Amino acid sequence: MGKSYRESDLESMNPSEARGIIRRGEWKADTIKICIGYAKFNLVVLPQELAYEFLLFSERNPASAFVSEATDPGDPYLKLLAQNGDLRTDLPKYRVFKDGRLVDEPTDIKKYWRNDLVGFLIGAAPNLLSCLIDANVQHRMFGGYTSTIPTIPAGRFGCSHLVVGIMFKSTKDVVRSIQISSRLPVAHFAPLHIGDATGIGIMDIYKPDIFANTSSISPLEPGETPVFWGNGITPQRAAMEAKIPFMITHKPAHHFISDQRVEELATF
Amino acid sequence: MGKSYRESDLESMNPSEARGIIRRGEWKADTIKICIGYAKFNLVVLPQELAYEFLLFSERNPASAFVSEATDPGDPYLKLLAQNGDLRTDLPKYRVFKDGRLVDEPTDIKKYWRNDLVGFLIGAAPNLLSCLIDANVQHRMFGGYTSTIPTIPAGRFGCSHLVVGIMFKSTKDVVRSIQISSRLPVAHFAPLHIGDATGIGIMDIYKPDIFANTSSISPLEPGETPVFWGNGITPQRAAMEAKIPFMITHKPAHHFISDQRVEELATF
User: Fold this and answer.
1) Same domain, yes or no, for B118 and B241?
2) What's residue A242's pLDDT?
3) Same domain, A207 and A109
4) Residue A99 belongs to what domain range?
């Protein structure tokens, strides 16, 4: 029987310690409020034969799919983003897909690990919120949407960009949000769309179809402007749509927590 | 018999026209002073089976090896950086390597093209000089050096970073150069080293071993500071050191000229 923790215990914890708790199975819930200020990553694990097309998809669509680290085939340990990070155990929940269908949702993937698997770490939505909060930019996040903005396909991978919709109080806040995120690959760089959501195929911004932050959703106030960033679930969606034979991902909102501060990963 | 041109004819030409002249074999010399202000690219063409490792090498070492476009296997046409750009004909000179040895230096690669070849376009040194000149930053470029700064290897690819050494007149110019290049993947982002060159294994900055801009080389003046950026020849060097069976590159200084202005490719 492991120790049990409340979310508040992990809020200001250092990432190495938090990963240890997750690795021992003592934290199985989401990581949204864990290790605040540290960069969090979505995970896609694929057989090596698909790795090139996936990395190319990422290279062509950095605003949604920027790969911050790719592991060597068969090696579950990270080298850049975290010390002693183990992809098989250090996320609270995983999803295993076969032929595009969800077949398991385990708390570790030791039994699924193979010598030909490559792990890709992709910046997650909490990084974007983290840098906005740090900079005191007034905003509220409604959730994630399927847009009609096309990605540039690569081999079998292609779909439209999933986006995160954030409402900003004023023009000044919109401008600051663009300046700040542009420096941050892990926060999806600059937005993909500003203003009228119907222009990117979102007919009702009050009903996000991917995930909803219901407590923040209420009618737009005068002067409030919606801005849409790419989302790190896009490459998973592309992989699912391609119905590839075998893939492992994180369970949404159950991220890998790196040793790096979000701000530490700014490109300048 | 094609038309013949002087360098000054091509200096302010639009890239599409210049590529046509190169394609028809009417310009076979270097591209340093051609289409000034437009982004120029080094080329690495590899069989698909090596493409993943190469792209991963690039992803891990963006300051030297940032891939701005990767073509689909067998497709010689670019989709992003240029309209109707053909990798087989649009560079003035190529180099063909077998098992790491130079075997040919043709003006087109039509007879070498295969259905499994992938082309990688990597930002070239003239882009860095272009953005410094545009911003009126006082500098002189000595040339290219082999440094001891290690790259992060990926599969068979690994070597030390080759660097370009540029001397800046004042601290203000050093600072401006970092600010300006940080925004530009095609100008190799921020520098890898500032100051004493012996710290990165360069024993004589007056003797660049990769290429020399001899007309600029004279003793450093008081206050002048050397700054070293990554160089797009690094990935070629890595591929040569790996003695891979088949590779085609541009001949140094004979670049692919894109339709994009250097400044157009700034990340913010």
Assistant:
1) yes
2) 92
3) no
4) 7-124+244-265
**Residues comprising chain B, all counted:** 268
> What pTM was estimated for this model as a whole?
0.90
Contacts of A182 in chain B (CB under 8 A): 267-268
Q: What is residue A1's predicted lDDT score, i.e. its pLDDT?
A: 55
Output the DSSP codes for A185-240.
GGGTSS-SEES-GGGGT-S-TTS-SSEE-GGG--PPPTT-EEEEEE-TTHHHHHHH
ipTM value, please give it. Answer: 0.84
> What local confidence, expressed as pLDDT, does residue A3 receive?
85
DSSP A16: H
A131 touches chain B (CB under 8 A): no
Mean pLDDT of all residues in chain A? 95
Which of B55, B60, B154 comes nearest A59 by C-beta? B55
| Cα A55 to Cα A231: distance, rounded to the nearest angstrom | 16
Residue A1 belongs to a domain: no
Query: What are the 10-residue block averages of pLDDT along chain B, 268 residues in total?
Result: 86 96 96 96 96 96 96 96 97 96 97 98 96 96 97 96 97 95 94 96 97 96 96 93 94 97 91
Structure tokens at B1: 């018999």
Residues of A in contact with B151 (CB under 8 A): none
Rounded to a whole number of angstroms, the distance from the CA of B182 to the nearest CA of chain A is: 6
Distance from CA of A58 to the nearest CA of B (A): 10
Cα separation values, B131 from A7, A149, B173, Å: 48, 31, 13
